[in-house]
Design brief:
Structural class: alpha+beta
Number of strands: 4
Distance between the termini: 32 Å
Helix content: 25-40%
Largest sheet: 4 strands, antiparallel, barrel
Order of helices and strands: HEHHEEE
Protein backbone atom coordinates (compact mmCIF):
# COMPACT_ATOMS: atom_id res chain seq x y z
CA UNK A 1 0.00 0.00 0.00
CA UNK A 2 2.80 2.42 0.88
CA UNK A 3 4.58 1.63 -2.36
CA UNK A 4 1.50 2.79 -4.30
CA UNK A 5 1.33 5.98 -2.26
CA UNK A 6 4.99 6.72 -2.90
CA UNK A 7 4.50 5.99 -6.60
CA UNK A 8 1.57 8.42 -6.91
CA UNK A 9 2.85 11.16 -4.59
CA UNK A 10 5.56 12.51 -6.96
CA UNK A 11 3.01 12.79 -9.77
CA UNK A 12 0.61 14.73 -7.56
CA UNK A 13 3.39 17.10 -6.48
CA UNK A 14 4.40 17.60 -10.10
CA UNK A 15 0.85 18.61 -11.05
CA UNK A 16 0.66 21.15 -8.22
CA UNK A 17 4.11 22.57 -8.96
CA UNK A 18 3.34 22.78 -12.68
CA UNK A 19 0.42 25.13 -11.99
CA UNK A 20 2.69 27.49 -10.06
CA UNK A 21 5.36 27.31 -12.76
CA UNK A 22 2.80 28.27 -15.39
CA UNK A 23 1.73 31.25 -13.26
CA UNK A 24 5.38 32.33 -12.97
CA UNK A 25 5.65 32.25 -16.75
CA UNK A 26 2.69 34.66 -16.93
CA UNK A 27 4.26 37.06 -14.40
CA UNK A 28 7.28 38.55 -16.14
CA UNK A 29 7.11 42.15 -14.83
CA UNK A 30 6.38 41.58 -11.14
CA UNK A 31 6.11 38.98 -8.41
CA UNK A 32 3.51 36.31 -7.71
CA UNK A 33 1.18 36.82 -4.77
CA UNK A 34 -1.75 35.02 -3.25
CA UNK A 35 -4.27 37.79 -2.45
CA UNK A 36 -7.56 37.71 -0.59
CA UNK A 37 -8.94 40.13 -3.18
CA UNK A 38 -7.84 41.85 -6.40
CA UNK A 39 -10.03 44.82 -7.35
CA UNK A 40 -9.87 48.21 -8.98
CA UNK A 41 -8.52 51.13 -6.97
CA UNK A 42 -11.84 52.96 -6.61
CA UNK A 43 -13.30 50.02 -4.70
CA UNK A 44 -10.47 50.26 -2.16
CA UNK A 45 -10.38 54.04 -1.69
CA UNK A 46 -10.71 53.96 2.11
CA UNK A 47 -7.98 51.32 2.47
CA UNK A 48 -5.67 53.22 0.13
CA UNK A 49 -6.29 56.46 2.05
CA UNK A 50 -5.35 54.70 5.29
CA UNK A 51 -1.88 54.12 3.82
CA UNK A 52 -1.61 57.54 2.15
CA UNK A 53 -2.04 56.24 -1.40
CA UNK A 54 -4.32 58.18 -3.72
CA UNK A 55 -6.81 56.34 -5.91
CA UNK A 56 -5.36 58.06 -9.00
CA UNK A 57 -1.85 56.77 -8.32
CA UNK A 58 -3.09 53.24 -7.56
CA UNK A 59 -5.36 53.19 -10.62
CA UNK A 60 -2.50 54.26 -12.90
CA UNK A 61 -0.55 51.18 -11.80
CA UNK A 62 -3.41 48.69 -12.33
CA UNK A 63 -5.54 46.70 -9.92
CA UNK A 64 -5.07 46.61 -6.17
CA UNK A 65 -4.27 43.40 -4.31
CA UNK A 66 -5.53 43.24 -0.73
CA UNK A 67 -3.94 41.10 2.00
CA UNK A 68 -1.39 39.37 -0.21
CA UNK A 69 1.30 36.82 0.57
CA UNK A 70 4.22 36.15 -1.75
CA UNK A 71 4.27 32.87 -3.62
CA UNK A 72 7.85 31.66 -3.81
CA UNK A 73 9.78 28.56 -4.69
CA UNK A 74 9.69 27.45 -1.06
CA UNK A 75 5.90 27.15 -1.02
CA UNK A 76 5.13 25.91 -4.53
CA UNK A 77 3.47 22.86 -3.01
CA UNK A 78 0.84 24.92 -1.25
CA UNK A 79 -2.01 26.06 -3.42
CA UNK A 80 -3.35 29.58 -3.31
CA UNK A 81 -7.01 29.23 -2.38
CA UNK A 82 -7.78 32.93 -2.96
CA UNK A 83 -6.65 34.91 -6.02
CA UNK A 84 -3.25 34.41 -7.64
CA UNK A 85 -1.95 37.74 -8.90
CA UNK A 86 1.14 39.27 -10.47
CA UNK A 87 1.93 42.57 -8.72
CA UNK A 88 4.61 45.10 -9.63
CA UNK A 89 4.54 47.11 -6.39
CA UNK A 90 4.52 45.55 -2.92
CA UNK A 91 3.26 48.06 -0.38
CA UNK A 92 2.84 47.76 3.38
CA UNK A 93 3.87 44.11 3.80
CA UNK A 94 1.11 42.69 1.63
CA UNK A 95 -1.75 44.68 3.16
CA UNK A 96 -1.92 46.59 -0.13
CA UNK A 97 -0.18 45.59 -3.35
CA UNK A 98 -0.31 47.86 -6.40
CA UNK A 99 -0.05 47.13 -10.09
CA UNK A 100 -1.69 43.71 -9.81
CA UNK A 101 -3.24 41.56 -12.51
CA UNK A 102 -5.09 38.29 -12.04
CA UNK A 103 -3.27 35.10 -13.00
CA UNK A 104 -5.21 32.00 -13.94
CA UNK A 105 -3.51 28.87 -12.64
Amino acid sequence: MFSRLFAVLPLALLVVANGHLEARDQCTDGSLYCCNQVTNASQQSSLLAKYGITVDVAAALGSVGVTCSPIGIANTGSACTQQTACCTKDQFNGAVNLGCSNIKV
